[in-house]
Design brief:
Blueprint lengths: L1 H12 L6 H4 L17 E6 L2 E6 L2 E8 L7 H5 L5 E4 L8 E3 L4 E4 L13 H10 L9 E5 L4 H11 L1 H4 L5 H19 L11 H23 L8 H16 L12 E7 L5 E6 L4 H12 L5 E7 L2 E6 L8 H11 L13 E2 L3 E3 L10 H12 L4 H30 L3 H31 L20 H12 L10 H28 L15 H16 L9 H4 L3 H23 L3 H19 L1
Helix pairs in contact: 4-5, 5-9, 7-8, 11-12, 13-14, 13-17, 14-16, 15-19, 16-17, 16-20, 17-19
Length: 602
């Protein structure tokens, strides 16, 4: 009982035990004695690995990867706002202010005796006014020795160290100077710090205390086994306990940044998680960082968000943001028009009933997409490609026939028969591959969902006559066997409808506004382009397709069939958008084509 009580007292006091059992648990990085201060640091397991962050600097991510090094060329080409610490970049220290890429080091390419240690360089950056409060920063390290951890602590606590007269600044600078001298010159040159004897002794006792667990773990040969991020987090907490006072955090509000995206050079969209309300959080961000994002989102629960346009004059209409979010949110459907993103031009929220199905990273991406309109050349290029690729296919077939004609008419005849035989299976396989590549992550976005609303039924008086005029893939010749019946009577109409109403339409809808159930009526660019491409494919088809009244129309029959195909394509595209589903147009295509095939074959 006495030994157990002693161990408990040691643990509460922050002392490291020496038992094997204790070393294998949390105490290998030591337990934190946070009795009065908030635990501001967290470690997350993300897809790219563990990331350490501070609730007061949620825009800064720290990655500590054992053995992580990059070359000088890679470091200088790193993404904007990147900081390498103490050997993570194998080159001399440098400062690229234009791109805000920094290497804080005192090993390679320098005279070590005359170069500040990494923690001292970090302090100089903060005191010189490096803006770490705005935008996204990433810090790379590969070994959490005390010099590196102090540099991380300085960068994460930059808001407390900007002014040289702050109590925490005055308290920690002597320790940083002494540690920098020890790390750069060695223990025998501690006197270079020039501190009074009593103060120097106090600083050394703090350094010994901070390095106690590092020495123990290394002496046991387990330094390469521990979790560097967790170790660093607890060492940061211990530094907090040494130099902060409870009153330093009397106005502390924990913020966890979940996702961020840059809208332009000066504005961001950021998703936070906090116990504050959105107005309180907006005021807190403005007070602490002197700025706030243009679009601010607060996660109130799983799938529940409040969204606010903090900058009233930012040129992005919230209605446009809501429309883009509703378009991609899997929980939003025209089957329930009340369950949508919406609100005013200043503040709104996620779907009320189900919450959103979007991740924070997807939300900020969609908001950026709503603001960053794609270049006109890209939009025009997609429209031209979606319209003309049937003609490109016909051109390739024509050129192939011309080349084969050089070898004799038998080759052309054989190639023509082969083209007719392979047209349906090749297009069916091609469509399946494209659908898999394009739609596998978000099939609902491309129409693979149950139909919504009923106003699309108003299009039937247009679509059915257009289909009968030759607008569907009904084959003239009777089917010789079951294979041709399935391939030409089922898979070909299905593939053509999916190719244009799913693939081409979906490829274009990313950059254009489309209709929604119960919304206003208009012809969107995806409808026009996919309808024209559909009609063009039917016109260049090597197969003989049925067109009613062709005998009475004479030379006008191909024109009537082409108009019917275009009108059917437009009607099917409108049905696709207003029902949010590919199913109605698929049923119309297969049903009408099957009925015509049955009548004509009979």
């Amino acid at each position: 009982m006495g030994s157990a009580m002693l161990e408990l007292i040691k643990k509460l006091a922050g002392f490291s035990g020496s038992s094997r059992n204790q070393e294998s648990g949390d105490s290998e990085e030591f337990t934190s004695e946070l009795s009065k201060l908030p635990d501001r640091y967290s470690v997350k397991d993300l897809e790219e690995g563990k990331v350490l962050s501070c609730l007061e600097a949620p825009n800064i991510s720290v990655r500590i990867v054992r053995g992580k090094t990059v070359s000088a060329a890679t470091a200088r080409k790193a993404p904007e706002r990147t900081i390498y610490l103490d050997g993570a970049a194998q080159c001399e220290p440098f400062m690229d202010h234009e791109r805000q890429v920094y290497n804080l080091d005192h090993h390679d390419g320098v005279e070590r005796s005359f170069t500040l240690a990494t923690c001292e360089q970090a302090l100089v950056l903060v005191r010189k006014g490096l803006n770490l409060s705005d935008k996204k920063w990433i810090i790379w390290a590969n070994d959490p020795d005390l010099d590196t951890v102090l540099a991380i602590w300085i960068l994460l606590n930059h808001m407390h160290l900007r002014k040289g007269d702050a109590p925490v600044y005055r308290a920690i600078v002597p320790l940083i100077r002494v540690e920098g001298i020890i790390d750069g010159l060695g223990l025998e040159y501690q006197d270079v710090a020039g501190l009074p004897k009593a103060q120097h002794k106090d600083v050394m006792s703090k350094i010994d205390f901070l390095r106690e667990d590092e020495r123990r773990i290394k002496s046991n040969g387990r330094w390469d086994e521990i979790d560097f991020s967790t170790y660093t987090r607890k060492l940061l907490n211990r530094i907090d306990e040494m130099f902060f006072r409870p009153e330093d955090f009397k106005d502390f509000k924990g913020l966890e940044e979940l996702a961020r995206a840059e809208l332009d050079q000066n504005n961001n969209v950021i998703v936070y998680r906090s116990d504050m309300g959105i107005y309180e959080m907006e005021e807190y961000l403005n007070r602490v960082y002197g700025t706030r994002p243009a679009i601010l989102l607060l996660q109130k629960g799983k799938g529940v968000y409040t969204i606010r346009k903090s900058d009233l004059f930012f040129p992005l209409e919230m209605e446009r943001v809501y429309r883009f979010l509703n378009h991609e949110d899997p929980e939003v459907s025209g089957r329930n028009n009340e369950n949508r993103w919406g609100g005013s031009q200043e503040i709104g929220g996620s779907p009320r009933m189900s919450g959103t199905g979007l991740k924070p990273s997807e939300i900020v991406r969609i908001c950026k997409q709503a603001y960053k309109r794609p270049p006109a050349a890209e939009r025009l290029g997609r429209m031209i490609t979606g319209s003309l690729f049937p003609f490109l296919g016909a051109l390739v077939a024509f050129l192939g026939g011309e080349i084969l004609s050089l070898f004799g008419p038998d080759y052309v005849h054989t190639a023509t028969g082969l083209l007719k035989e392979l047209f349906a299976p090749v297009l069916t396989v091609f469509t399946l591959v494209v659908v898999f590549l394009q739609c596998r992550h978000k099939p609902f976005l491309y129409g693979f969902r149950l139909p919504a609303g009923w106003d699309w039924l108003l299009l039937l008086p247009l679509v059915i006559p257009a289909a009968l005029a030759g607008g569907v893939w009904a084959i003239r010749e009777p089917f010789p066997d079951l294979y041709h019946m399935l391939m030409l009577g089922l898979f070909l109409p299905l593939a053509m409808e999916i190719l244009f109403r799913v693939n081409v339409h979906g490829w274009l809808q990313e950059h254009h506004e489309i209709m929604q159930p119960g919304g206003r009526w208009f012809l969107s660019p995806p409808i026009l382009v996919s309808g024209f491409g559909y009609a063009a494919m039917l016109a260049v088809s090597p197969l003989s397709l049925v067109a009613f009244l062709e005998q009475t129309m004479g030379l006008w029959a191909p024109v009537v069939q082409g108009v019917g195909a275009f009108l059917f394509g437009l009607g099917a595209g409108i049905i696709r958008e207003r029902s949010e589903s590919i199913l109605p147009s698929l049923v119309l295509q297969i049903g009408i084509a099957g009925a015509i095939n049955g009548l004509y074959g009979g």
